[in-house]
Amino acid sequence: MSGGRIRRPLAGPSVWVAALGVAAAGCSSGEAEPLARVSAPQTFSADRVCGGLFAGEGGKALERILESTNFRFLDEKENRDVRSIAQTMEDAYRSGKRIRDMPQPVCEVAGSDKERHIPTVRLRFTAYSKHAGDPADFPGVSDRGLRISEQAKRVYFSYDCVSPRVGSTEDIPLRISILFHERWDESKGPTALGQDYLAVTHSAALAVAKALGCVDDGGLPARAQELPPAAGAGAGSAPAGRPAP
Fold it and tell me: Which of 61, 175, 201, 206 is found 20 to 30 A from 50 (Cα to Cα)?
């Protein structure tokens, strides 16, 4: 004893070992911890996928092509909505001679999984103008206006947009091209779905034209049934200098 206080001996090693054993038993009760849930991919209806590209008859055509009423993205980071695509087209036009190097936004949509394939359609949007200074990128006056061609499971659209928002003019319009590609080996193909391919591409083109405020909707009719006949392979194809999708 010293100063009226009793010094207690420290616990020995055996006590610490026992305490650790109790703690370990408490941390491992024998019950397996629940596995983290893997969230299912988000799905969208036809009128919502890619932010409004496929409204009305375009959405119904998309359902027939992919044989699905629910759609998802294979790569959510790559896909764009109407507003984003329109802004990219405007930025490309305003970039002047750098238009050839500007992004080409994509909407790639998948339907319900089939036995061996994932039915998919892909649309790519490209901006052209005389600003590029390359005739191959923007043909002459006789080539202006709405142009459509088809080849197997692909459709090519191009139209000229004169828009106060963009700053494009009759002399130097913003030419927007859309390349549609259906990617499903077991689909019914263009013989059965050719009109649906056109309806989907027309729907996307019209949505972007309206978002940009193109005069007269860029010459696009209100309905896909009013489109002029499409040219065959090789006619009205995309201008040189940009890769196919």
Answer: 175
